[in-house]
Amino acid sequence: MESRIWIALAAVLACAAALQASNETDDALLRRYVQDAHLDTAELIAKNGYPAETHTVTTEDGYIITFHRIPYGKAGPSRNRPVVFLQHGLMCSSGVWVLAGSEKSPGFILADAGYDVWIGNVRGNKYGRTHVSLSPTDKKFWEFSWHENGYYDLPAQIDYALEHAGQSSLHFIGHSMGTTSFYAMAASRPEYNKKIRAHFSLAPVAFMSHLTSPLLRVLSTFQDSLDLLMSMLGDGEFMPSSEFLASVAEIACQDQTITGDLCGNMLFLLCGFDKEQFNVTLLPIITGHAPAGSSTHQLLHYSQGIRSGKFRQYSYGAIENLLKYGSLDPPDYDLSKITAPVYLHWSSNDWMAAVQDVKELENKLPNVMESRQVPDTNFNHLDFMWAIDVKTLLFDAIIAQMKEN
Ligand SMILES: *[C@@H]1O[C@H](CO)[C@@H](O)[C@H](O)[C@H]1NC(C)=O
Question: Which of 7, 96, 145, 355 is the most exposed place for a label (fewest CB within 10 A)?
Answer without folding.
Answer: 7
